[in-house]
Every structure is written in C-alpha cells, then in structure tokens.
Automatic annotation (TrEMBL):
It comes from Nocardioides ginsengisoli. This is Aminopeptidase N. Its cofactor is Zn(2+). Residues 22-50 are annotated as: Disordered. Keywords: Aminopeptidase, Hydrolase, Metal-binding, Metalloprotease, Protease, Signal, Zinc. SUPFAM superfamilies: Leukotriene A4 hydrolase N-terminal domain (SSF63737), Metalloproteases ('zincins'), catalytic domain (SSF55486). One of its GO terms (molecular function) is aminopeptidase activity. Residues 56-225 form the Aminopeptidase N-like N-terminal domain.
C-alpha cells in the first residue's frame, strides 16, 4: 500500500482529485474433537484468522447490484483440518443463509458480527481435507470492522480493495496473511459492465441482461490481496519485453482530459515489472497489470498481479505497488508487526528505480534523508519502533520512509553487490510464503558475514536516531 503523502493528499483534495481510502494455530498432538478457535495468530487484530483449519482454495461466486449495493455470494472453501474439529470459525461480516460441509447441511451462527461459527454434521479428523460452502448476502457498505468501513462503490463502479482488511466484506475466509490459498472468483454484474480481478481471466458468460466473469489466481495469495472491480473500463492487453502478459484497466468515468495521462502512467507497468525482475529475480506470478478507478481513494494497493490506483496515479507509485508483488504478495508478512518488510522494501525499490533512471543515487538519497531527519533525534519520526509499530501505526510515514532509509544505510554498510544478493535471496527463499523481520535480519547477517543485530536495533527499534557511525551505515554526523 502507498498512501498519498499528507501534503500531496491535501493538495489533491483541494483540486478535487483525491478522496477516501486466518492463520492456523496448529495443535501439536491429536486429541478429542475441539472447537476451532475464532482467534488468529496476530495480537494486532486477534479476530483475524482462525484456529484449527488451513485454507487451500477459495471458489468465490458473487452477484452485485449497483442500484441497491447488495452483494449475494456462494463461497466454497477447500480446507485441511489441523486439529480434530467438532466446529470451526470463519471471518465474514455479511449475514449467512446456509452452510454445508462436504455436501451435508451444517448448523451455524454468528456469535459476533465478524465471526461465523460452523458445526458440521460429523467431526472432522486432523489432516482431513474438506469443503465448506457458505451462502450469504447483504449490503457490504452497511458493515464496519476494526474502525474501518471499507466498501468502495457508487451506482456505476465498485472496487473491493483495502488493507489490512477487505475479505470479510465480500467472502468468508481465514483472514490473515499467514494463511494463503489459491482462488477462483466469478462475479455476476449487468452485461454492460466489465469485471477485473487477480490473475488470469478464464472466461465470461452472458445470460440475458447479466454476465459472469471468471478470474483465477493459481499462486498462493493472502486474503486481503484478493479483489474484484466492476464498471466501465478501457482495457489494455499485451506482453512486456520479457514476455510477461499484462492486463491494464482504466475507468472510462474518469475526466476525459485526465485519461491520456493516466493511461500513459499505467502503461509503464510492463517495463517496470521487467526492471524489477532484473533486480529481484523472476517475477513471481503469471501476469501483471493494474487498474485505475474513478472512485475517490486516497491510497494505492498491491492487489496480487494487478494493483489498484486512484486518478492521481504517478510513476513512482507504480514502482512501489509492483515492488510489492515480491515484497508483500509473494513474500507476505507472517504477522502484521512485520509490515516494514512490505512498505519499507517497496519504498526502497522506488529509490533504486530512481537511481537507475537518472535520479539521485542511493548514497545521495541516504545523505539527504539523514541530513533532513537527524537534527531531531528524538522526534516522532524516530520514536516509532518500525519493527513493531502497533496496529494504529502500521501505515505511518516512518514505516515507509525511515524503512527505506534503513535499507539505504544497510546497502552503504554491506555494499551494493551484497544488497542485491540479500534481496534476491530473501524473495527466493520465501517465494509464495511468509517472512518475519527476525528472519530477514538473520539472512542479512549471513550474507554480510557479520552480526548486524546492532545495526537493526539502532535503525528499527531504538526510539532515537542512530549514532552516526560506519557500523550504522553512516559517514557523517548531523550538519
């Protein structure tokens, strides 16, 4: 995710160009059937994700009505039990009308607005694969969770996008990045509308006045990265110079005088993906692309394979969201406290891209950033522990900007060659999975051949500006 910088957002609002914005706790030994926990692994949002189950595949089928804002759905989830289960939980805000487990009716209830408790007809054995089918419906815009009301829609366009929570507004899930799965998503809307989603478009079937579009993502994906958009879009398709297919969409409802600029910026997607691949190793997915919505949104989001942007799209935000395909999508956080691995790294790739295309070098960026920030060594910029920022601060500026500065200092400390090796090793070792800050620190020390724990403590956790020493990747004290 890249939120608009505060100053830029204020300016764009004044111009009318911008607006708003389950993992498993496995039982080590088998035992009597238990109630799968409605708690996930993350203290930031304890209700995100659920215990006792591992989601493998989501088959999501939804119908959306633009006039009423009502969404009805049928989602089939292929899961594996990680405990002997007499019941299980899923995360879903919308009302439920029916549930089956392996084709047999199951009892269910909503003990809270965010949780769905399912009791199958028979207990499920640890290690057993099973399929739970949930039928549901309601107005997503009517529901809130964790202080968020995330449904982004008007009477002509809808985009299901947000972070860290989005799935419970439109499909049941284990809603935590540590429980990835593959996806088939079918969206039924009026036949005059187009639907864009993750991965590859499998097909489109017209039936009377409506049409169903089928998108498929075969690489493991976190729930918050699953999205669909429906509206009136201009589509661009092709292949990058290295052969990666791309699929771009620009809302036709954007002002006509803005559309040429927006289209030109979005077209950079293919070349930027190729450049990132040259630096980080093979692109982790089958396709790339992006979508620009006409809806007012104050952030861009790295939906897997196809980031979404607002009308204010600019070149470096494209670099940021595409860098997330490696840092955040292919290699997802294991806990939300690890968010620096997403945002700091994507921001650092903006720095790398600028340096490779005529902008300031990484060393110049480090010098200027250090000079600008070190004069207030105990300011809020430095006080935030970006290795554990807390749920209220996961998207604060230091996570992005100080995060990128940390990586620039790390490169200065270990050398550009070692930094390239480190980043390529990180995304290769954790491809399709998850990672933690502690794992990255250990890998960095291994690649560098020196203990870097003091470096990371100083930059990430100390609560003050690091001392200006070579061990911290710095050449000079504050001016």
């Amino acid at each position: 995710m890249r939120r608009l910088p505060r100053i830029l957002l204020v300016a764009l609002l004044a111009l009318g160009l911008a607006g708003t914005a389950g993992a498993q706790a496995e039982s080590p030994t088998a035992g009597p059937p238990v109630a799968g926990s409605d708690r996930g692994p993350d203290p930031y949002w304890p209700l995100d994700g659920n215990g006792g189950t591992d989601a493998r595949h989501y088959d999501i089928r939804v119908r959306y009505d633009f006039g009423t804002g009502r969404l009805t759905g049928r989602t089939a989830i292929t899961m594996v039990a990680t405990d002997d289960l007499r019941s299980l939980s899923l995360d879903l805000l919308l009302p439920v009308t029916g549930v089956t487990v392996d084709g047999r009716a199951a009892s269910f209830r909503k003990p809270s607005k965010h949780e769905l408790r399912v009791v199958p007809a028979h207990a499920i054995a640890q290690g057993q694969q099973f399929k739970v089918v949930v039928r549901y419906g309601g107005r997503p815009a009517a529901y809130g969770y964790a202080g968020e009301r995330n449904w982004l829609a008007d009477r002509a366009e809808v985009v299901a996008m947000n972070q860290p929570h989005m799935a419970p507004w439109w499909f049941p899930s284990n809603d935590h990045p540590s429980d990835k799965a593959t996806y088939d998503v079918r969206v039924n809307v009026p036949r005059g509308k187009q639907v864009v989603g993750n991965g590859v478009r499998v097909g489109r079937k017209i039936s009377g006045a409506r049409a169903t579009t089928h998108w498929r993502e075969t690489a493991p994906m976190a729930t918050y990265l699953a999205f669909f958009a429906a509206g009136d879009f201009a589509i661009q398709k092709g292949r990058s110079a290295s052969g990666i297919p791309y699929y771009n969409a620009v809302s036709k409802r954007l002002p006509r005088d803005q559309q040429p600029r927006i289209t030109r910026v979005l077209r950079r997607t293919a070349a930027v993906t190729d450049w990132l691949q040259s630096r980080l190793g093979a692109y982790p997915f089958a396709t790339t692309g992006g979508l620009v919505t006409s809806l007012e949104v104050g952030f861009a989001l790295e939906n897997q394979t196809r980031p979404t942007y607002g009308s204010w799209i600019y070149p470096s935000v494209v670099v940021h969201e595409l860098a997330h395909q490696w840092f955040g999508d292919s290699v997802a956080v294991r806990r939300w406290r690890d968010i620096w691995l997403n945002e700091g790294f994507a921001s650092f790739m903006e720095v790398q891209y600028a340096a490779a295309h005529g902008g300031p070098s990484v060393e110049q960026y480090l010098d200027s950033g250090w000079d600008a920030a070190c004069g207030t060594p105990t300011s809020s910029y430095w006080r935030l522990n970006i290795a554990d920022p807390g749920p209220a601060h996961v998207f604060d500026d230091p996570v992005y900007d100080r995060g990128a500065l940390t990586l620039a200092a790390l490169q200065h400390r270990i050398g550009a060659g070692a930094m390239t090796t480190l980043l390529r090793r990180w995304v290769s070792d954790h491809r399709g999975g998850n990672g933690t800050i502690e794992q990255f620190e250990a890998l960095a020390s291994s690649v560098a051949g020196v203990d870097l724990s003091g470096f990371f403590d100083a930059w990430l956790r100390s609560g003050a500006a690091p001392a200006a020493t070579a061990d911290h990747g710095l050449d000079h004290a504050c001016p």
